[in-house]
Design goal:
Blueprint: E1 2-6, H1 22-29, H2 42-46, E2 60-64, H3 80-91, H4 97-109, H5 113-133, E3 172-173, H6 191-198, H7 208-211, E4 214-215, H8 226-249, H9 257-289, E5 304-306, E6 311-313, E7 315-318, E8 330-333, E9 338-343, E10 349-358, E11 366-371, E12 374-380, E13 400-410, E14 415-421, E15 430-436
Parallel strand pairs: 1-2
Antiparallel strand pairs: 3-4, 5-15, 6-9, 7-8, 9-14, 10-13, 10-15, 11-12, 11-14
Helix pairs in contact: 3-4, 4-5, 5-8, 8-9
Amino acid sequence: MAIELQITQEYLGQQAHLFYLPPLWREILDFDMRWGGEDLRVKDILTGKRPGGKTVSKGGFAAVSNVGQEKSWLGSHLAMSNLYTYGRLAWNPWDEPVAMLHDWTRLTFGLDEDVRDVITEMSMESWPAYENYTGNLGVQTLTGITGNHYGPNPASQDGNGWGQWTRADRNGIGMDRTVATGTGNAGQYPPEVAAMYEDVETTPENLILWFHHLPWTHKLSTGKTIIQHFYDAHYAGAETAQTFPLLWQTLKGKIDDERYEAQLYRLEYQAGHSVVWRDFICRFYNKMSGIQDEQDRVNNHVWRIEAESMTLSGYSRANANPSEAASGSVVTAGGGGGSASAEIPFDSGVYDIAVGYFDVSNGKASWTISIGDEVIGEWQGDVESHISKASSNGLDGHSAARVTFRGVTVEKGQTVKITGSPNGGEAAPLDYVSFQPEGILD
């Protein structure tokens, strides 16, 4: 008997998002199947153990790796830890994620303890963070399942032959896989495990929506409803992702410039795309359920200036598809470029200024942002030149992106101006500009 794992992050951020897989694999390998009523873990079964003390020939491990021609093999220097640790677990399924990660870090980046500690902290937080800002409580991936499996598109989960079947509607969410009233999937496990999954009261909450269809108002052990858990988890996950580039920046000079800059680009991109995920999923299920966020965050971006509300020159309105991919309407520039400007309505002070935009793959537009007469930043729509992820030519959750300029001093009443220069099929699309005070992630 063998197990197949997926090293490539097909549904888990495609190496554009940091995701250290061994803690997830560890959970699978440590799972007690209760085969024959005995304590028999998946890792035991793979190494030939059977009920009643019997043994058979050892099984094995297989994996989809997606190693390619990119310098880092997997499209990200940190993603290589997943390939290394897969090999370690195939030899010894009792190996621990942190110990393996420490060994890989020493072999890859050297003996500096700061490097080891930062990579360990980010990696061990990466699975909870990604799960928080994508799909929660066992609802599983909410990527565009009928498309490129990358960005958010929960509507794609249902109503088609490739659906993952969340059965989400105005009243509730989750797939009934029980024997009594559902597909019967829960009954395929050995009896003790099957009984656990058959009953909503004994199903672990991190899998509850995989096995049960429940009302949005169903209370979890925390006292939160399912919908409030969705809101809170998505905001928490995006907050965690913001810490990754800041942690990585503490390693400047301790890692060679080429790998340092390549990984910093990815972590900055992930920090922005985690907010895209957060906003998209919260908007989608807020609209579907009609239940408001208790903290009044969803669709309430008080620090944003929407692009369509700015004074536009050369820009015109367009629509994102799905609409949840944008904060409001999108604006796109004509062939001669465009600008969007507005008076800053916020109090004078120091802000992190974030711009929501779209980086489609059929061009490399460029933007500049200025406050008053001072240019504070510029960037290009060239993620396809830096990150080997699935592409999109549409204004959607795959192409939506966000760039942040930190620690900018502004005066109330100054003019913020963003200038876009189209290239190819990329019309320098803009969504919003956000002025974030310290401690706020709008």
